[in-house]
Amino acid sequence: MGNARPGPAHERLGALVGEWEGEEEFAATPWAPAGTARSRHSFRSGVGGLAVIHDYAQVRDGEPFDGHGFFTADPGTGEVVWFFFDGVGFPPDVPLRGDWDADGVLRLAKTTPRGQARHAFRFDGDTFEHEIDVRLGDAETFSPFARGRFRRV
C-alpha cells in the first residue's frame, strides 16, 4: 500500500507554515484569569505533505504554557481537521473541524463535554490573526476567549 498524496486541501494549509510571534489577549475562564501573553506558533509540513505540525508556546505573567497538534484534511469530507493538545491537560478526544470560507478565513470548531470552541485564522501576507470564541457550561451564546495577532519571523 502506497502513501496518500497531498491534494488541494493539504496544499492550502501551507499558508500556516512558518514561525510566527505575537501578542494575545485572553478573557477569564475557569482555568485562568484574564490577561495577555507573548506567544509563538511554529508550523511545519510533515507526513509527506499530508499534515502541518503545530507547536505553540506562550509566556503569561512569567509562566510558560505550550501545546502541540497537527492539521490535515479528512479524505472522506475534504474538511480541515486539527488535533491539538495543550498544557490544560484535556486529551484531544475529537479534532476541531472546518474549512476555509469565501473570505479566505480558516474556521474550525469542536464540541466537548466542557463546551464548544470556534477558531478563526485570518492570514494577510506576513501576519495572521487567531480568534477563539467559546461557549462554556450552560452558556447560551459564544463569548470571546482569545484574540491574537502574529507576524512571521
Automatic annotation (TrEMBL):
- The lineage's top-level taxon is Bacteria
Q: Name one Pfam family in it.
A: DUF1579
What InterPro entries does the record point to?
DUF1579 (IPR011473)
Instruction: Output this protein's name.
Output: DUF1579 domain-containing protein
